[in-house]
Automatic annotation (TrEMBL):
GO terms for cellular component: cytoplasm. One of its GO terms (molecular function) is protein serine/threonine kinase activity. Gene3D superfamilies: von Willebrand factor, type A domain. Residues 29-153 are annotated as: Disordered. InterPro entries: Thr-specific_kinase-like, VWF_A, vWFA_dom_sf. Residues 89-108 have a biased composition (Pro residues). This is VWA domain-containing protein. It comes from the Bacteria. Coiled coil: none annotated.
């Protein structure tokens, strides 16, 4: 089995064709067609597989048949641990009993204080995201018992994050200690200690986003990536299979010869373009969410968290044009495998698409993450937008599907999409390994839920040496805002719930004997 997985991985990482969905956006006008071979330099990923069209059932974001018909509109997320069957209709609710007679007026001279007062239950917290429907009053609510529904609000979930590009020594140690790269050969092996960074700025010293950077290897094969909002592009000599010496140009500038690090080390090459750097005015935000039964707690809170994140981004960047797209996924044999909604700038539409999802299905541990990422890579991303994909999951793909998931991540990287994985409750070693590699390869960060909120199932502690715990909505806002503004944004001191390890602006301070203990 391992030999088979290894062969599949080699087929996935040694392709020769230009990726179909990304060739127009990822290649500059002067770039040569794909020339690399299995033994050549400047490797590009194989084309993405063509998935069958999602059925009408998959596209329909409907309320499950098990949902009560009297559910309030502002609490449309329904969770269930079992698969939904569309052939059974729920029994009608019983008729409400007649209202009780009004209480008799108190006798003259009596006082309400003469009996023990009834203490009213505290009001539930307000729901952060509403659909515009009026809330039902107590008088209008049915008096027969109904299934309790948790009122959710933003800011309840807690999380930490880690940047493996800022901590290459720790990531290398993590890869060695986990042993996953040796046990399952289909897993990506990303060497963050060997990095070639190209930084582009304008004459005023401002980072220049959206600039094509072409890198040409010694055999004539080439790669073209586009700068992020911070004006940088990261090439990985091992992953990209770079030659010992390469030529680089940015935005049509003159070629420059650069020696590539062959051992642990980082090289940085700077370019200055003519004219002013482009301004970031657009954000394409895609949510890729596991909606199997184990994700019920996270799904309940995700709608409110999204509303809080978008509101904060709008406040910080009033002129920002935000579009939101979504792909929800389960697994083969479930009611649906993927359900995709294209980008929309209508907040109410995005809110409704998310609010009508429910958790169900699954059964085994692994899920169809690979198909969801392929769907997300096929979304119509705008070329002049910051592109962020938030992947919320608690399980990896099936072992035989890991190569396809990684292939999709490479296509997202080629489109300048930064993947922000969020490890949910129960995330295991394999899922963390895959998601951290995706984050690092796309110049992003890995986020993970913690138990500080006391909500939902226990969350597996990450294999990370240092981090700060804050509210999830504020953490994701900081990460996305950093990708928009092109600079790392740290939490306010008052927002930090607790700290783990020796943390310094995203970097873990290593002990003096780290190399000897982890070599």
């Amino acid at each position: 089995m391992r030999k088979t997985l290894s062969a599949v991985l080699m087929a996935a990482i040694s392709g020769t064709a230009v990726p179909v969905p990304i060739h127009a956006a990822a290649l500059s006008a002067g770039a040569s067609p794909q020339q690399s071979s299995a033994s050549g330099y400047c490797r590009r990923p194989d084309p993405l597989p063509r998935l069958e069209a999602e059925s009408a059932l998959q596209q329909a974001a409907r309320t499950p048949t098990s949902a009560p018909t009297s559910a309030p509109v502002d609490a449309e997320i329904v969770t269930t641990g079992s698969r939904v069957t569309s052939g059974e209709a729920p029994p009608p609710p019983p008729p409400p009993p007649p209202p009780p007679p009004p209480p008799a007026p108190p006798a003259p001279g009596s006082s309400a204080a003469g009996t023990a007062p009834r203490v009213a239950a505290p009001a539930p917290p307000p729901v952060a995201m509403t659909t515009g429907a009026p809330a039902r009053s107590a008088a209008g609510s049915p008096s027969y018992p109904s299934r309790p529904r948790e009122q959710v609000q933003s800011g309840m979930l807690t999380a930490g994050e880690h940047d493996d590009l800022l901590n290459p020594e720790l990531y290398a140690s993590y890869v060695r200690r986990s042993g996953l790269g040796q046990q399952v050969k289909a897993l990506p092996v990303l060497d963050t200690a060997r990095l070639l960074t190209v930084a582009v700025e304008d004459a005023s010293g401002r980072p220049a986003p959206f600039v094509p950077v072409e890198l040409r290897c010694s055999d004539g094969n080439s790669l073209t990536l586009t700068t992020q909002a911070d004006g940088t592009v990261a090439f990985f000599p091992g992953l990209d299979r770079l030659s010992t010496s390469v030529r680089i140009r940015a935005g049509g500038s003159d070629w420059r010869v650069v020696d590539v690090p062959r051992t642990a080390g980082k090289a940085r090459v700077g370019f200055t373009i003519e004219g002013a750097a482009a301004k970031v005015t657009r954000l394409d935000l895609a949510l890729v969410v596991d909606v199997t039964g184990s994700m019920s707690d996270e799904l309940q809170f995700l709608q409110a968290e999204l509303d809080s994140i978008v509101a904060s981004l709008n406040q910080r960047h009033p002129e920002l044009d935000i579009r939101i797209g979504m792909t929800f996924y389960r697994d083969q044999g479930d009611e649906f495998v993927t359900r995709t909604f294209p980008f929309t700038g209508d907040g109410a539409t995005a809110r409704g698409n998310l609010g009508r999802q429910f958790a169900g299905g699954g059964g085994d541990y692994e899920e169809a993450m690979q198909d969801a990422l392929v769907r997300a890579a096929g979304l119509e991303w705008r070329r002049d937008a910051v592109k962020t994909l938030v992947l919320v999951a608690d399980a990896p793909p099936h072992a035989e599907d890991v190569p396809r998931a990684w292939l999709a991540a490479e296509h997202l990287r080629a489109q300048r999409v930064q993947v922000v994985p969020v490890g949910a409750s129960g995330v295991g070693d394999l899922a963390e390994y895959v998601m951290r590699a995706m984050a690092a390869a796309t110049q992003s960060r890995y986020a993970f839920l913690t138990d500080d909120s006391g909500i939902g199932d226990p969350h597996a502690p990450p294999a990370i040496d240092c981090y700060l715990v804050t509210r999830l909505d504020k953490l994701l806002t900081r990460i996305i805002d950093s990708q928009i503004s092109g600079r790392r944004i740290e939490p306010e001191k008052a927002d930090v719930i607790r700290s783990v390890g020796r943390y310094d602006a995203g970097k873990c301070i290593l002990p003096p004997d780290f190399g000897r203990e982890n070599g």
